[in-house]
Amino acid sequence: MKNLKRPDEILLIASMIIVMFVVLSVQADEMTHKFKNPSFSGVGTSSHYLTIENQEFNRKEAIREELRAYTEDLEREAENTTLARFIRNLESRIYAQLSRQLVDSLFGETASDFGTLELEGNTIEYRVEDDKVTLIITDEEGNTTEITVPLGSFTF
Q1: How many Cβ atoms sit within 10 Å of the Cβ of residue 57?
Q2: What is the pTM of this model?
Q3: 95 in the same domain as 63
Q4: For residue 4, is pLDDT > 60?
Q5: What CA–CA distances, in Å, run from 52 to 35, 46, 55?
Q6: What is the C-alpha end-to-end distance of the chain, expressed in Å?
Q7: 146 and 86 in one domain?
Q8: Which of 66, 83, 138, 150 has the highest count of CB atoms within 10 angstroms of its CB?
Q9: Does 117 reside within a domain?
Q10: Residue 64, pLDDT score
Q11: Does 71 reside within a domain?
């Protein structure tokens, strides 16, 4: 054997010996392919399908909620137009006038003991008898509501 004097040569030989031992100790294993998707492998398939179903349901529910919110916004905008506010104000004033006329016919200078008023398909009948006022309100379907108010308890 040749005389080794240089440290480079010693280092080279040592590293070659180490590489030989490392290469010899490496062992290979069989390569197997496994699907990650449970739809293909069958492992955890039911929970996978359940997850997909929940995601689809949540997506559809979010779309429904968004449509509902959009529809409510459109309705709110339609109710807050200048024309809609004007109509509501006008209706309120007309109803106030009708109410005042009904009160005048009941208690005014030319008071009457009975009467009938038609309002949007509803019939309002009133009678004054024995110190009480009776209002009978009949709607379009024939349902009636009767209100009796004693006159003697009113003081101003």
Answers
A1: 10
A2: 0.42
A3: no
A4: no
A5: 18, 10, 5
A6: 135
A7: yes
A8: 138
A9: yes
A10: 97
A11: yes
